[in-house]
Amino acid sequence: MRRGAVYSSAMSGRTDSARAITVTVTFFADLRRFLPRGADGPQRYTLSGNATIADLLAVVGIKPDADVTAAVDGDLADRETALHDGADVMLLSPMEGGAAAAGEATLSTEGGGDAMERFGYWNKILHVNLTDRSTRIEEPGDAFFRRYAGGRGLIAHYLLKYVPKGADPLGPDNILVIAPGVITGAPVPGAGRHSVGAKSPLTGGFGESESGGYWGAELKRAGWDAIVFHGVSPTPVYLWINEGQVEFRDASRLWGKITGEVEELILAELGDKLIRIAQIGPAGENLVRYACIANELNEVAGRTGMGAVMGSKRLKAIAVRGKTPVKIADQRGLLAMAKWVSGTMDEKHRAFHEFGTGAAMQGKSLEGGMPVLNYRLGAADTIGKVDAIAVRDEVRVRMGACYACSVRCKKVVHIEEREEAARAAAENIYKGRAKVAFDPLGRYSVDPRYGGPEYESLAALGVNLGLDDLIAICKSNEMCNYLAMDTVSLGCTLAWAMECFEKGILTLEDTGGVPLRFHDADGVIKLVEMIAYRRGIGDLLAEGSQRAAQRLGRGSEAFLTTVKGMEMAMHDPRHMPVMRASYLLAPTGGDHMRQTSNRNGLRNQIGLCHFLAYEDDQSLQILKTVTGWDITPEEMVTTAHRGLTLARLFNLREGMSRADDRLPARFSDPLPKHAGLTREQQDKIVTDYYVEQGWDANTGVPTAETIRALELEADAVHAR
Ligand code: SF4
User: Fold this and answer.
1) Cα(337)–Cα(329) distance, integer angstroms
2) Ligand 1: distance of its center to the CA of 454 in Å?
């Protein structure tokens, strides 16, 4: 473990004669801004012998009344708690992940007697009818949460129950479910996830996407386990959830605005800058089939078009404020897990902390597995100009974090159009601690509120389009965040269109005179906007590549990189065997998150980030310490299995079959360094997985025994 320098301080108002003590302090999430400059990891402070937490905060520079939770040796501590030599102190901000501090209230649940036994979740699901603007609270009980946990399990349960077979994904019968997990909001790194689900307008099947940041944790802290939106609002609306209070608010003046403007307007209207907002952008309003839902401007539930569903409901935003800490069954055990993450930063998360995603792009290119020019080449000479190392060196001003996470893997990019503006920003905003980039061509600025490009965006909006212009890539990534569109589906749709254009299948006549060329960075910027507003050729491309190919015909289907209608992420299955099952069998289509595995399937449902290096037994430990459930590894696997089986039932009901568990033709072609994937190879992976899941080996229909074993009989009734 890396240790920082020793810092000494005289304690005001304390007895100087007391023997000095040394304590070790770990800072979590945004409290890391109090770290001494250049320092990282746990820090040691020397204090007077009778120092308390309040004294320590004063030394660190945190105001005594700040909303900060402290723990000493794993136990919660208040301001007057005395410190001792060798004490291990953790400082967490409740807003960013703090545990219940002594004296803080917790939400009481109806039913009284068993409320004290319930941890991690509140047993409160909010149903919102947008058509008549009514709400109701469902209290489904403890068995429900143990069965579905959250995320995919809960979403699939409600989709089967409420969405009629064959419903239009953009019509009033679809629902939109926002589902954190049972650990979301607990003060442990990675517990800031929530999922969004609906019938997908992109695939016509099970739609779902995860997001990080703070919004999901804020919803839990407001006392809600999930929200289910029904119907369609007659006029634009946003929902304001202030703890237990739920209010519909007019969003007419927000409609048409980009996400940053909407956030400013809502925060001003509600008068509390700590409110967290999830929202759609113009792309969602215009029903772009891969529109996303953004929270805190830089986190997105990106995949499967959830923003279009929200737009179809005329729901512009969901603003949430929650001040009630999630109740934890075993605070001490959970804090130990949090400490494990910060204490093993060097061994487990250092590279991720330094670069986030995308540091290995050069290696991937050398191995011939990088998606380049619509997945045709596997390598690009210019890769070093656009990878995460280049991002750090050229355009990054800092790393950001999600709720409660000490890993801080999120890139934040700031670019100004002009050198003088960049210099002024470096001085005024960052006080000389960061260099602000400028565009030597004077074209683009990039607002740091929108974060920075992750690997998927660097690849989908960059190398797969033949681009090595890092500033333009950061700009299109920023635009995707303020217009709220999925960078992967957008990038792949453009790559498909560019290949069609290259081969003369799409012509200037088709595109209204707009060239669709690889290597054209400025052209991509224009197209991003045209798609979000469905202008000209943007209207066709807003449908996603598969629908566009069906409309265009002329053999353009040969260049698709979609599975079940969703564009594949930036991990070539010819190069990465581990991705093959994910793409073939993920219920959402071309998904690279390996949701088909028990590990990731479970994390999705409980609300735990996939990037944390927890072993499975540690994930189980987190689940136990938060909920108090006496859960076994087998039950954990069953929970993941249940979620995937429910999603499978939904897809089958909506007309999908084994024929949809197949990679597009492009991946039968070889890459220079990797063979293409044969039909037989794919069939074997699919059959093996069906058998492993207890689904029929030929059709992939879950067997009656599996339905019984997973206790899904009631859900299966809705699957017919
Ligand atoms: S590892 Fe990164 S993505 Fe995951 S919770 Fe931490 S900061 Fe967020």
Assistant:
1) 14
2) 12
What tokens does 628 get? 């108090």
Neighbouring-strand partners of residue 410: 400
Residue ID of nearest Cα to ligand 1 atom 2: 409
Residues of 171-197 as b/e, b for ≥16 C-beta within 10 angstroms?
Answer: eebbbbbbbbbbbbbbbbbbbbbbbbb
> By the 8 A CB rule, do 79 and 52 touch?
yes
Burial of 286 (0-12, 13-18, 19+ CB in 10 A): buried
Residue 402 near ligand 1, beta carbon < 6 Å: yes
Q: Is 128 exposed, middle or buried (0-12, 13-18, 19+ CB in 10 A)?
A: buried
The CATH number of 112-321 is which of 3.40.50.360, 3.60.9.10, 3.30.70.370, 3.40.50.12710? 3.60.9.10
Question: Which residues face 196 on adjacent strands?
Answer: 178, 209
CB within 8 Å of 55: residues ≥ 6 apart: 11, 14, 47, 48, 83
pTM of the model: 0.87
C-alpha 197/C-alpha 215 separation (Å) is 16
644 Cα to the center of ligand 1, angstroms: 24
When computed from its CA atoms, the radius of gyration of the chain, rounded to whole angstroms, is 25
Q: What share of the chain is helix, strand, coil (3-state, %, to 5)?
A: 40, 15, 45
Match 């990039």 to its residue by tokens: 446
CB 224 within 8 A of CB 124: yes
Enter the tokens of residue 106: 């917790």
Q: What is the CATH number of domain 6-92?
A: 3.10.20.30
Report whether residue 405 contacts ligand 1, using a CB cutoff of 6 Å: yes
- Tell me the pairing of strands 562-563 and 566-567: antiparallel
Nearest residue by C-alpha to atom 5 in ligand 1: 190
Q: Which residue among 298, 399, 405 has the greatest number of ligand 1 atoms within 8 angstroms of its CB, and so is best to mutate?
A: 405
Torsion of CA 62, 64, 69, 71, to 10 degrees: 90
CA of 653 to the centre of ligand 1 (A): 35
pLDDT tens track for 521-579: 999 999 999 999 999 999 999 999 999 999 999 999 999 999 999 999 999 999 999 99
648 Cβ neighbours under 8 A, 6+ residues apart: 587, 693, 695, 700, 702
Percent of the chain with pLDDT over 90: 80
357-546: CATH topology is 1.10.569
Interval 310-323: pLDDT, tens: 999 999 999 999 99
| Domain 577-717, CATH number (from 3.30.420.40, 1.10.599.10, 3.30.390.50, 1.20.950.20) | 1.10.599.10
- H/E run at residue 26: strand 21-27
365 contacts 387 by C-beta, under 8 angstroms = no
Q: Which residues contact 574 (CB under 8 A, 6 or more apart)?
A: 369, 667, 670, 671, 674, 675, 676, 677
Question: Rounded to the nearest whole angstrom, what is the distance from the C-alpha of residue 385 to the centroid of ligand 1?
Answer: 25
Number of alpha carbons in the 13 Å side-chain half-sphere of residue 184 = 37
Whole-number pLDDT of residue 347 = 87
Q: Which atom of ligand 1 is nearest to the CA of 408?
A: 7
- Please state, in angstroms and rounded to a whole number, the distance separating the CA atoms of residues 67 and 91: 10
Q: Where are the domains of the chain?
A: 6-92, 112-321, 357-546, 577-717
**Which of 402, 168, 161 lies closest to 287 in space, CA to CA?**
168
